[in-house]
Amino acid sequence: MIEATYSDRKAAIEILTQSFNSNKSVEYVIRGGKNRSAQIKALMEYAFDMCMLFGNVYLSDDKKACGLVLLPHKKKVTLKSIELDISFLLLCSGIKKVSKILKREEAIKNAHAENSYAHLWFLGVAPKEQGKGYGSTLLNEITELYTKIGLPVYLETSTLSNLPWYKKNGFEIIQELRLGYSLFILKKEINIHHALAWN
């Protein structure tokens, strides 16, 4: 696993844009229409930049998979974050969807019991490389890193077929949000033994 830098931005965004081209949760956020692909790309650019500010971005060793991790306890309002929010609003969601997005984010936040945790915002594999284990390897490396230092890992998925995969990798469903589609919130608890050893 590689911790990404801004030099990896283009490659990471390309992986994620392709991976989430047909995703209900993404469709909920973007305006849609003829510029749909550009809006998905803008969403991934926003997420990448926010995670570089207030979290971490990871790539598999061969750069075929990408994971964006946000650390909400480190998030704060800065001139850069305001600039990113405005860009997201203009290029991705539009004003009409702001209320829906904020309500969804509040519901997700309320499902997170701890003040300090890692939020695996997006995890994607280049479409031609899916099904080869790259996603599982990166998922396990990311979750092991954070659970070892005492941070549970949360994520959301709207893809029903991914639920068995996440469960196989140690996640449990803690809540289902009904937003016109089902959004599942999952959690992986900290590894107590590793966390104690780390501390």
Automatic annotation (TrEMBL):
InterPro entries: Acyl_CoA_acyltransferase, GNAT_dom, Trichothecene_AcTrans. Residues 111-191 form the N-acetyltransferase domain. It holds the Pfam family Acetyltransf_7. One of its GO terms (molecular function) is acyltransferase activity, transferring groups other than amino-acyl groups. Gene3D superfamilies: 3.40.630.30. Coiled coil: none annotated. CDD domains: NAT_SF. This is N-acetyltransferase domain-containing protein. It comes from Cytophaga hutchinsonii (strain ATCC 33406 / DSM 1761 / CIP 103989 / NBRC 15051 / NCIMB 9469 / D465).
